[in-house]
Structures are given as C-alpha cells and as structure tokens.
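step 4 of 6: structure.
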Amino acid sequence: MSKEMKAHNTNKRLHNVHLLKAGEYYLQGSQACIEGAIMAGCRVYGGYPITPASEIMEYASRRLPQVGGRFIQMEDEIASASLLIGASWGGAKALTATSSPGFSLMQEAISIAIMSETPMVIIDVQRPGPGQGYITASQEDVMQARWGHHGEGSIIALAPSSVQEMFDMTIEAFNLSEQWRTPVLVMAEEPVAHMRERLLIPPWNEIEIIERKKPQDLGIMPEDYLPWGHDIVAPMANWGEGYSVNFVGLVHLEDGNITKYSPQMHYDCIERLLRKIEGNVNEIARIETEFLEGCKNLVICYGCVARTALEAVIEARQEGGLDVGYVRLTTLWPFPHEKLRDIVGNVNTIFVPEMNLGMMKHPITEALRDRSEKIVSIPSLGVLHSPEYILSKIYEEIR
Amino acid sequence: MSRINRYEIRIAGFGGQGVVTIGKILGEAFTLYEGKNSVNTQSYGPESRGGACKSEVVVSDGEIRYPNVRKADVLIALSQVALDAYMADLKEGGILLLDPHSIKHMPDRHRYQVYEVPTMEIAYDVGGVRFQNSVALGALYPLIADIINESSLLRAISENVPAETVEINIEAFKRGMSHVKRDEGT
C-alpha cells in the first residue's frame, strides 16, 4: 500500500462511520481485530468481559451497532460461545473474544462447533494460568487451543504478532472458518492486544473475503441436500432458507441421521472432521522464515515473542557473528509438520522461546527430532522475553 | 528531521497523571504525522492503579521488532516512585525530565541531562492539575525537536483531548516548552 495514503485519526471521527476508509490509523490491537472482523463481514458479537481481552469487547460494543450489527453482552463465556453457533447457523459471521479462564469455559461450545461444522471465530488474549493465574502476557493456551475440546476433530489457530496482524489475521480467521466450516481461533497475547501501532487499512474492495459454500449456489435442490455430505466440506444451508437441516452434536450420517449407528458410520463421520483440517494443512498453515540458508542454529517462535526473537536473532548474527536462522509459525494448528521439515535442514541447536514452560516445543520436537542435535526451550512466564534474555540463552548454548 | 534507528521514550508517574495519554499522543504524532514507525505500550492492571504507571513509545524509521524499552533515551518522571522504578533503564547521558516538586532525591546530574520543570505548578497556573501531562509534553518537545515537528504534536494533542480543552492543553504545552527553552538559553 502506498505511503501517501491519507492519515486518519480515529478518536473522534469513529462516530457515524461504517467501514473505516482505506488509509493509515494508529490503533490498539484490540481495536484492529474488530475492524478486521467488520471488514470480513462479521455482524454479531456476543461476549463476556475479562482482562486482558475486555478492550476488544468494549470496542465491539461501539463499532458493531454502527455497522448495522448486533452486540450482545452474554451472562458468561459458555453462553457467548454458544451464541456464535446459533448466529452462524442463522447466516451471520460471529465473533467473541475472551482470555484464558473464559477460553476454558468455551471449550464445550467449540467441541459442538467442530462436530456441527459451524464457522465462527474466537479471539483468545491469553493470560497466565492455571486458575485465575495472573493478568499479564502468556502463551499458555496454545495446547488448550488444540486439545481443550473433548473428542477428536482438529482446529485452526493463528498467532498474530502486531496490530496489523490483529486486523489481517482476524479477516483470515473468518475466511478459513467459512472455507473449512470450522471454528477458528486467534491466539493473541496481552502485548499485541494492548499496543498501539500503525494499521494500514486497504480499500474494502481489495480485501479477499471468502463466504461459505451453500447448496443453492451449487444447484443442489432441498430434496437432494445432505447437510453433512456432498464433499469433504459440506455445503452449508443456513436456517430458514428452505433446506432441512438436522443440527446434530451426535455422531451422524451424511443426512444428519443419528439412529442408524454403526462403527463404520462413526469412523467415517469423525475421521472426515480430522482429515478436512489435517489433510489440508499445507493449504491452511503458513510459516515465515529469515536467514535460513546454511544456518547452523535456529530459533522457532510465534506470536509477539517472534518480535523479540527476531531482534535477538539479528543481534546474534550481527554482533555475535552466530549463524542463527529464524522460523515463525504464523499458524499454530494444524501444525505444519511437513512444511517445517521441508524448510529446515540439519542444524545443531533449535531454540524455542515461548511465554510458557515449553508447550510448542513438543510438536516442534516431533517434527524435527532427527534434524537437530538439541532442542532448547527458552521459557518466560507472565512477561515478554527481552532480546537480552533470548540472546543470553543462545550464547550459553553455542558459544 | 534526523533519521532514527531506534529511539525510546518512557513516561512515568502516578496513575491519573495522564502518562498514558502522552504516550498515545507521541506515538500518533510520530506515526501518522511524521511518517515514522512507533509502538506505544503502557503498564496496566494492579501496578498502574495508583502506583508507578508508565507509558512507552519506541520510534524508528525502520522496523520495530521488540516493542518495549530496552535502554531509554528519555525518561519523564513525574513522581519519586516513578524515578526510583525506572531510572536504572535510562541510558547514560540520556534525557531526564522531572518535576522538582515531586522529587525528593535528585539523581546524579553528571550521568544524565537533567531538566527540572515544575509541571504541576505550571499546570495549576494554566487551568488545573489535569493539564500536567501537556506541560510535560511541551517541555519534552525542544529536547527531541530534531526528530519531530511541533505541528505534529499539536495536531495529535488536539485529536486526543476533549474538544473543549484543546486550547488550554496547547497553552500548557507552550508553557512547558518555553520553560525548557529558557533554561537552555541561560
């Protein structure tokens, strides 16, 4: 986007506007994700406030009504996530935001949404746990994102690291949820949600928006419609459009029938849920890299820690003369196992800085065990690593 | 204007002194009106309610990766608690702007460029304690004039304060500015 774009201050002018005009803004991540959601076509927000995610809800309460949307304060997080399911089947794109304790409560609805293949987006501004933990920065929900819901099935989870990405990835989250008919998680952290930075908003008609495939678009008549069939991602008929949809949370056949149970129909139903996400991991998941060519050591990171890690990597190269490469997982789940193996050659040491005690180190180890001699966790709890801290750990190992 | 690789400003005081607002105004001025990159972060939660509250702005003509202060180029300290908490992170020779009426223990003048501005007193004179942050911002401006224009700051102030207080805030800014300019002249 051109640098000459007009600068817009949003503090006063947001009243009586609909979509933000293309241009430069100076916004918090918490505001940017709502603007992204609105751009993506989200018109329903149901939520319950919790630190450090409350700013998202506050801003949504102002913006959703301005664009003809609905903002509803729910009684708790279980209701908030359940509301998304109903709104989505009613044809709306729906969003909620929460923080870790609230995210735990949402797992039941996430599980139902995976089973019922309901597009919806949840932003989790993670905070430390367990219990009430604390209210500062954390990446302690990255495993809950994948494994928190009961039962099989997979999930899509993205990890933004800037205000711009809070905007871009919320749009991407809605697109992925519509394309794959599945809940999508945006795994943010306090620094990214609260910081202010430049946000470039492109013209609305230049933003790619993906809508769910509907049976009427494919020429499927109501009498022939299988709400859970036709393709690996079934076309989705919204309620009230003349198609009969038996909404089910039980193991079901392609027509929604739950009474003709057999082990085979059970397997087919659930295996497809997993395959639709994991089988398309190379299309869904993205990785960013720097300085990979011939590097002997590697830092693998995600979220706002990636900003610190890249700073440390550049200093280790420039000042320490060390041959360190950088990999950032922009998608956490489905985990890009093959992509990672494609880009990472044999290295000595892999460093994994995370704001937890080494959670994503597990799938990274599973993918790259034979490619490195050592995989070292660089943990931090409650606070973003400083570049000095990451550097000191790198020097400790390889100097 | 000079090009900057990385310039770090930290504003600290008690919650309620408007330190978060100064950070936002500075960040917006640098980013939207000067075309530089800036990241504005702030303390929040328990430590920002009544205790030492801080706001940070990191400015660069290049990409800003680590969003927080590493070694501050500027520290504005509006309380003793804030000075005690954050002075260790100020660069040797960095700019230390403080309100002498709020500070009991003066820092070593040989290690930092110390500017004493009675921000509270000037604010009362202009119209009330709530203009203290604009006085401090005005006092900061001549010290960073090589990287930002006065017009950008004034525009950011007028966009971020209630419409009815724009004039008084700009008056407070000018008074802070002339205080530092006068000191520098003598």
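step 5 of 6: annotate
 - DSSP finds six helices and six strands in chain B.
 - The CA atoms of residues 28 and 156 of chain B lie 6 Å apart.
step 6 of 6: archive
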